[in-house]
Amino acid sequence: MHYAIVLYLDDEKTAMVKETVKALAPVCGSDYCLGIEPHITVSAIVADAEEPVRKEAERLSKALKKGKIQIGSIGVFNPLVLFLAPVVDSYLTEACRTANSYMLKVSEIGNQGRYMPDHWVPHMAVAMKMERDGLYRGFQRLSEIFTPFCAEIDKMALIKWEENRPYQELAVYALS
After folding, report:
1. Whole-structure pTM value
2. Which of 93, 130, 136 is nearest to 115 (CA)?
3. Mean pLDDT of 78-102
4. What is the CATH number of the domain that holds 62?
5. Closest CA to 37 of 135, 149, 137, 158
6. CB–CB of 54/159 below 8 Å?
7. Percent of the chain surpassing pLDDT 70
8. What is the number of domains present in the chain?
9. C-alpha span between 51 and 70 (Å, rounded)
10. What is the average pLDDT score of the chain?
C-alpha cells in the first residue's frame, strides 16, 4: 500500500485555500481537489503492513512541532497540477527529514523518491488532473486571485492512497 505523511494548515488558512480550490475547479474543468484536504506532503512511502505504519506515524506526531510557514508563490507541475508553493525554510526542511527518518524504519521509499529530503518540491495542490487548456485557464485565474500568506502548521495526518480511493485519512494528529 501507498501512504503519505502530510501537514495541515490552521483552520482559517485551510478554509481560505478551499475557497481557492472551489474557484479554480470550474475554470480548470476538474473537481479532483475539492474532496482533498489542503496539505503539504512531507513523506511518501510504501508498506505491506498498515499497523506498523500507523504506530510509527503516531510516534512521528510527537516529534513534529507546530510551525509557521509562508506560502509565497504559485506553480505548475506540467501538465496536470497547479499548486501553492511554500517558502522552503528550516521548519519545512526539518519536517521532511524527520518524517522520512521515522517512516522509513517501517516502510520503503514511495512515489519514486519525490518526497525525500533534497529531492522534494514542497507544494499544496489546488487543481489536478485537468486537460492542458484547463491548466492554462486555471493558471491565469490563480495568478489573478493568489496573494502570498502566512499560516501555521498545526496538524499532521497519515494518508493511505489506493487507485480507486486516492485520499484516505487514517489518522490526524494535533501537533504541539
Report:
1. 0.96
2. 93
3. 96
4. 3.90.1140.10
5. 158
6. no
7. 100
8. 1
9. 34
10. 97
Q: Greatest CA separation found in the chain?
A: 45
Spatial distance between the Cα atoms of 115 and 3, rounded to a whole number of angstroms: 12
CA–CA distance, 132 with 43 (Å, rounded to integer): 28
Nearest C-alpha neighbor of 115 from the set 63, 161, 174: 161
| 80 against 54, higher pLDDT | 54
The three cell numbers locating residue 61: 506526531
Q: In terms of residues, how long is the chain?
A: 176
Cα–Cα distance list, 54 to 50, 60, 107, 158, 170 (Å): 6, 10, 11, 7, 8
Of 43, 39, 54, the residue nearest 155 (C-alpha): 39
Q: Helix, strand, or coil here: 87?
A: coil
Whose CA is closest to 120, among 40, 175, 35, 176?
40
- What does the H/E/C string look like for 103-153? HCCCCEECHHHCCCCCCCCCCEEEEECCCHHHHHHHHHHHHHHCCCEEEEE
Strand (E) positions, the chain? 2-9, 40-46, 67-77, 81-86, 108-109, 124-128, 149-162, 165-174
